[in-house]
Each structure stands twice: as C-alpha cells, then as structure tokens.
Amino acid sequence: MKLGLLGPEGTFSEAAAKKWSPDAEMVFFDDMESAVTAVDEGLCDESIVPVENSLEGPVNVVLDTLLDLRSPIIGEEVLPIKQCLMSRGEFKDIKVIVSMSQPLGQCRRYIHEHFPLAEVRATGSTAHAAKLAQEFPEMAAIGCSEAAKLYGLKVIREGIQDQPMNHTRFIVLGTHNVAATGRDKTSLAVYLDRDRPGALYEFLGEFARRSINMTRIESRPSKKVLGDYWFFIDVEGHAAEGVLKEAIAALAHKNTRLKVLGSYPRADIL
Amino acid sequence: MKLGLLGPEGTFSEAAAKKWSPDAEMVFFDDMESAVTAVDEGLCDESIVPVENSLEGPVNVVLDTLLDLRSPIIGEEVLPIKQCLMSRGEFKDIKVIVSMSQPLGQCRRYIHEHFPLAEVRATGSTAHAAKLAQEFPEMAAIGCSEAAKLYGLKVIREGIQDQPMNHTRFIVLGTHNVAATGRDKTSLAVYLDRDRPGALYEFLGEFARRSINMTRIESRPSKKVLGDYWFFIDVEGHAAEGVLKEAIAALAHKNTRLKVLGSYPRADIL
Fold it and tell me: Which of A130, A176, A251, B32 is most buried, taking the most CB atoms under 10 A from its CB?
C-alpha cells in the first residue's frame, strides 16, 4: 500500500503514518496541499495529513483543500506532539529559527521570550527545516526529535511548545468509503448563507434534536466576503446509519450545501 | 490621543489607524501581542489591530490575547487589502520572500505558482518585511504599497492575494465601554464544556430565539485538550440594551463562561 504524506523523512506526519500503517510504502510530498490531493490524483492509495492541533488550531491549507476533494476521509490518528529545538550549534549562537507555520504558532511564546531578535523562517515542513539547519550552526529547526537523528542535529531543548500537553489530529484519505464499526465519527463541511440569520442554529438543531454529539466545529472563510463561512463539523456516528443518516437526509431536504467528507472509526482517545 | 498599532510605519494597520483617527499620535509596537495589550498596560489610549481576513481567516494571536484583556473593543474598521510584491531587484531575481504569516497565507497559491523554490521568511509585520528587503535585491516583501514608498522599493506586482476581493477587519481597543448608537455590534467569547454535547446549540438558541443576528463565529482551541474550544461570536446589538442584554443575562443565569469583549458602532459595510 502506498501512503502519501508530507516529507521529507522525519516529519510528525511520518510518525503518524507509521502508527496508521507500519508496513506501508511511504510516498513523501513537498507540500501539504500535494499530500492532501495525492489520492485524488492517483499518486497513492491513501494519504495522511494533520488537520488540527490542540494549541494552534486548524491546519488552514488542509481544510481549504478538503472542500474540492473527491477522496473520502477513512481514518484518523491522534499524536502527542513534543516540539524540539535542534541545531548543529549551541543555544547561545542561534540567530535563525526555521519551521512550518503551525509549529511556529505552537511555540510562539517560547520564541518570543528566548529569541526575541531571531529571524524566523517558514518552510514547507519541519523535516525540511531540520535539513536546512544542517548547513548553518547559527540556525535552529523546530520539529520532531526523529528529524534531529536523521539530519545529524542536536536536540537542544525538548517540549518547547507553549503548553506541555499538545496533540495533533491527523486524517487519512482513501479511495473508498469505509463501513460502520459502531464506534465511528463523521466529518462534514457545510456552507451557510450569511444572509440567513439563525442558519447555523437551525443546522445544529438537526443534530441536537437527535442527540448526535458534535466533537468539533471550525469555521473557514468562504473567500468571498467577510462573515461568509464554510463550517467543518465532526459528529459521532456513521453517515450511512441511524440518526446521523436521518439528520443528513433532513438537511439535504432543506437544500443545505453539505458535503460529507467521510465516516471512519474513531481513534482511541488520548 | 495616543493610538497603538503594529509597526513600523507602512503596515496595513497604519492605513486602518489613519481611517479610524487621522489626527492620532501613532505608537508603533514590534509585535501584534504588544499592540493588543498596549491599552491594558497604559502605553496608549487606544489601539487598533487586525482580527480577521476574508481569505485567511482569524488572526490567531489577537484572538488568543483578547481572552485575558481588560480593555474593551470600542470600534471596528474594515479595509480592502491589496497585497503587493515589492523589491529593490527584479521579478526574475527574487529568491527570498518575506512577510507576516497572514499575508503569506493570503498569497499561498501565488507564491506556490510563481516562486516554488523561493525561501519564505516570516516577520512580525509587513512593513518590517519591506524594511528587510531594502538590503537585498534578491529579496521581495509582501505588504502594503505604502511600505514600498517608505522603504524605497518598487512595487513589482499589485494585488497578488489568491482572490481579487480581500478585506481585513480591524478592532479598536479602548479604556471605556462606548454607549449604544442604534447601529451596534457586540463581540463575545464563550467557553463551552466539551463534555456537554449540545452546549453550542443551546448557547446559540438564546440568540436565535430573540432574532439576534450573528455576523461571525470562530473557534479557537482552549489549549487544554483537542475538541475543547473558546468561541468568538459577533452579534448585532449592544450588550447593555434590549434583547441582547436579555440574552446575556439568561446565559449568565445558566453559568455560561461568557466574556463580553465590547459593544461598538458597526463599521460601514464594504
């Protein structure tokens, strides 16, 4: 099985991929968008991408790309995340910090306190950052300790994210919907007209009335005008079964612009 | 009147500040967090900061900082945003692109298409990026055209954000709550227990039942565990008047952890 993910080797995505499918053949992509669209484009059988972090919130590019995707979500993994500061040089020599925007956000306060004057560079992945830091002793990467091993860097500080407890949730994209297991979750995207006040309340009512538990709600701009959103909602249950099937049918009947992104077995909780 | 904002000169915040109060004495801060807390810390009478963008969504650091703030929101400004690519050098020579994470997100596709190999650096502000680009002809900043004038750069491309229509909403923080004008908006932050399914629905019900229009909803992680959020909600009306006052009282009665961030006159719509 070919499993697509953000590369190069040593990303947190790789740790999640190994947890998901230890024997898969890993196919590394240079940027997050390509990892999301990889199954749609026939480049691999499945792909795994981060979708939200408990400190910094949603991975915007993943949410935005999901809207036009054909491949369904078929699974999820939750990983505890320890951001490491790694370099060839010493703490006192660090002048440049390099990482992805998400980890930089997770370590915002740390960077501000310890490196107020450092130059901060954004790269496509934490492992790519570690690769860059190989070249310059005054550069430090922020990422997975695995990357330090792979690229010959020292871990100077471990767990530098702004709160000790930090988790990232990854989703797995595949070619076919998966059947219900009895312990499922469904991800939905819904567009609610900004000119209809109360639309979100009405929408949530279809779930609340049926005692369907919502585990997540996230809004992303529709990119048209301010105040116009797509909502990304996760609920318990499988879209093809029981009360959730009913709720989705009721919403379709009301002409709600709803996209079922996938139903899949819930990951074991932290 | 001393008005705090993100500096140096030439940021989009400065354009918003001039619209808000042309005669104010501008007090520039190095980073967004300091601009948000400036009134709380007695460093200025008011401060103006971006809170959301129609392409890239919320400004995370502003939302996160609002939660602990004493200063109320007293106003808003909405600005059309044209991101400019500016440099001392030529388009073909650009190897490094520098800007804030928000503008980089607004131009994500453009950068990916036109500069797939460029190094991308994140700075504290767009004007700071322009200042850096003064030094190296192979470096381009993304920001406000005003910054190009100030720092002697050429505007190489104008309006490079991923959609032509692009707006940023700024909020103004002050020392005192402002009285109702009849055309007001109220910003709220509410913490909803993740272990109480349907809590968001119930919360929104207090507004929907009273026909209070919601113009925005945004979730930010509580930074404790996945699935645990603060919601940032904007509604029409003033917290000290009429049905909105009633709704807030009803929520307080239910022990909802609700913070009124401020009631203020609505900005003229785009």
Answer: A130
